[in-house]
Specification:
37% of the residues lie in helices and 26% in strands. It is α+β, with helices and mostly antiparallel strands. The protein has two domains: 76 residues, ATP-grasp fold, A domain (Dna Ligase, domain 1); 112 residues, D-amino Acid Aminotransferase, Chain A, domain 1 (2-Layer Sandwich), CATH 3.30.470. The strands form two sheets. Strands 5, 6, 7, 8, 9 and 10 form a six-stranded antiparallel sheet that branches.
């Protein structure tokens, strides 16, 4: 596997390792590694295989943290009780670690559990979704819209053939119905639309440059007054 864009060299190495293992979906920490190495901001995170490792990781990055199950057999972590947010201190780490593990054992007893991703919890803000899809008819495409629960509720998303320029990414942002939320609706602070556009460009390049990527999704991507942060990533490969 070769790629011309130097910023994706680490992403290629990660994907090659996953392909060699016979998997088609990157684990949450692997997906975050790809996103971070591509130049997109992420929270601090660490894979913990024991409650003690989770405690050490949380202590180094600072509370509150989010705990997420890491398993190749679980794509939608929330559906099986595999995500706990707002873990505030050491006492909650052990209890919540065990709670996630027990929930997964009950709901997906045959799941291969790799550990739990400990992630620094970021301040709440407007959530968007940025994704890439390799379509059989149109090839590599990039998608943008309001994120979180709004994706399914409003279906306020737009698509473009990838890769896109920064100006095309800005056009995508302005096209969604929820653009006013990003642009400072009724006196609210205007969010970092320029950095959001750069992130759309990066995802469009990632899906178009690396043929082995079938789908990539940042949801949610937090958009702040200054900067954006990908708090969750999903990558499926061929």
């Amino acid at each position: 596997m070769a790629v011309e864009n130097a910023k994706f060299e680490n992403a290629v190495k990660i994907i090659e390792n996953v392909l060699a293992s016979g998997r088609e979906t990157l684990l949450p920490d692997e997906a975050m590694d790809v996103i971070k190495s591509s130049g997109i901001s992420t929270p601090d995170y660490a894979l913990a295989k024991t409650a003690r490792e989770a405690l050490t990781a949380a202590g180094s990055m600072g509370y509150p943290v989010v705990l997420k199950i890491v398993s190749p057999d679980v794509l939608h972590k929330s559906d099986v009780g595999g995500v706990i947010v707002g873990v505030e201190d050491e006492k909650e780490i052990g209890r919540n670690y065990d709670e996630i593990m027990n929930s997964l054992i009950k709901k997906v007893p045959d799941a291969d559990i790799m550990g739990i991703l400990v992630e620094k919890q970021m301040p709440k803000t407007t959530e968007v979704i940025v994704g890439g899809i390799r379509d059989e008819q149109f090839g590599a495409t990039v998608m943008f819209g309001l994120g979180g629960i709004f994706v399914e509720l409003f279906k306020d998303v737009v698509f473009r053939i990838a890769p896109v320029t920064e100006e095309e990414a800005l056009e995508m942002i302005r096209e969604i119905k929820g653009y006013a939320i990003l642009n400072g609706y009724r006196g609210a602070e205007r969010l970092d639309i320029q950095q959001l556009a750069r992130t759309i460009v990066t995802i469009s390049e990632l899906i178009s440059d690396i043929d082995e990527i079938k789908e990539v999704e940042l949801n949610p991507l937090f958009v702040y007054k200054e900067g954006v942060t990908a708090v969750d990533a999903r990558i499926i490969i061929k």
